[in-house]
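User: Teach me something about this protein's shape.
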Amino acid sequence: MSAKTSRMPVLFLGHGSPMNAIEDNDFTRALKKLGARLPRPKAVLCVSAHWLTEGSVIGGMERPRTIHDFGGFPDALYGIRYPAPGSPSLAARVRGLLGAEASVDDGEWGLDHGAWSVLRFLYPEADVPVVQLSVDMIAEPREKFDLGRRLRGLREEGILILGSGNVVHNLRRISFEEDAPAAPWAVEFDAWVKGRLEARDDEALLGDLSRAPSGDLAVPTPDHYDPLLYVLGAADEDEKPRFEYEGIQNGSISMRAVRFG
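Assistant: First, the predicted structure itself:
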């Protein structure tokens, strides 16, 4: 890498409904503006809530396919392709940092909508290499945080670390009404997360969320919350968050976007 390479920030982005990928709304416009402000990375390492594995798996393909991992949406959504190149060299580097328990996938996965639905607004030309890292669904929260910490040095190498999920994600309480009001419990938990992020109270965010305000409703399963733990690990302890977007979609989905660095 050039000595002039900027140290990259680390991001957590809500991605919400796949429909965001084809909509022009406040959230997608905020992503476009964010992409224009970010220093250009050498590559993106994306931890997506939609790739859950036992242990850590890294996408090592040269040309990752676009995965449409959803059903019942308009045809236009299935026609989207995000042809960003992969980076086998970055995949090997990540495996080296994560250790022997990590493995490289040479072709089974690709880029799921947790990755491409936000990346297509950050880098619409699909000209930045992207490598996906799975969420280790059997790891404890502290272990996920520690995995993120092992990856922190990639920021010095020009790699943008991106976690894609949602801090509030309850599909059983979702509303499909246009301009559905945010559920009070979703607002309460989202505000609690914001406060803990501002205080850099990582211990609270790694703890038992059922003890947090409305935690049981906001995080009925950990998959969409987990990418935040990797991001917290990759952020320096003294880095304060910048909230690039905040809002609730469909009543029960927080679209909070957080940048460190």
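Now, about its shape. DSSP finds nine helices and ten strands in the chain. The chain has a mean pLDDT of 96. If you'd like, I can walk through any region in more detail.
User: That's plenty for now, thanks!
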